[in-house]
Design goal:
- Pfam families: YjbQ (PF01894).
- InterPro entries: UPF0047_YjbQ-like, YjbQ-like_sf.
- This protein is α+β, with helices and mostly antiparallel strands.
- The protein has three helices and eight strands, in the order ββαββααββββ.
- It has helices at 60-71, 98-111, 129-139, and strands at 41-49, 55-58, 76-83, 88-94, 142-148, 151-152, 158-164, 172-180.
- The strands form two sheets. Strands 1-8-3-5-6 form a five-stranded antiparallel β-sheet, with helices on one face. It has a three-stranded antiparallel β-sheet with strand order 2-7-4.
- A hairpin with a 2-residue loop joins strand 5 (142-148) and strand 6 (151-152).
- It is elongated.
Length: 181
């Protein structure tokens, strides 16, 4: 196998900072993220979110409230958040200025035509249903978030959004799976 690097000179040095050191002794090394029990843990919870009007809604506080106890038992891992619906979506975006949520809804409504004059064949569930499926596919129905020292490892201005793409508010179910040490 030949690896070709662009540019002149030797290949660049790659520096990696590890937060998990298998050789660490968790009983004596307070900086270690290794689990004293030595094995991975799993936790899973299904959360029913209350009906929301159409648009993008910050749901981080609701999610964290429901998983806080389990989440606190993980030093390092991943949280997988899965929405069990095809006409809503999940995304991570700004958690401070609600104008970002409104602008995102405006953008989605601009690029995905809606109403009786839209070109969609799937209209049995209403004129907003097919556009909701397309919007759901654009953002997706799942997120993976790092867990660090018992907390979701998102940035300061990041939050989990539920994007409701239907006109009629509907309760939504989210399955949160935690895995780590």
């Amino acid at each position: 196998m030949t690896i070709i690097f662009s540019g002149v000179g030797p290949p660049p040095t790659l520096r990696v900072r590890s937060v998990f050191t298998p050789a660490a002794n968790p009983a004596t090394d307070r900086g270690s993220m290794a689990s004293p029990s030595g094995g991975p843990k799993w936790a899973q919870k299904t959360i029913t979110l209350p009906p929301q009007r159409r648009g993008c809604h910050l749901i981080t506080p609701m999610i964290v409230k429901e998983i806080r106890q389990d989440l606190s038992g993980f030093n390092c891992g991943l949280a997988h958040v899965f929405l069990q619906h095809t006409s809503a979506s999940l995304t991570i975006n700004e958690n401070y200025d609600p104008d970002v949520q409104a602008d995102t809804e405006t953008f989605l409504n601009t690029i995905v035509p809606e109403g009786r004059s839209a070109p969609w064949r799937h209209t049995m569930e209403g004129p907003d249903d097919m556009p909701a499926h397309i919007k759901s596919s654009m953002f997706g129905c799942q997120l993976t978030i790092p867990i660090t020292k018992g907390k979701l490892g998102m940035g300061t201005w990041q939050g989990i959004w539920l994007c409701e793409h239907r006109d009629a508010p509907t309760a939504r179910k989210v399955v949160v799976t935690l895995n780590g040490i």
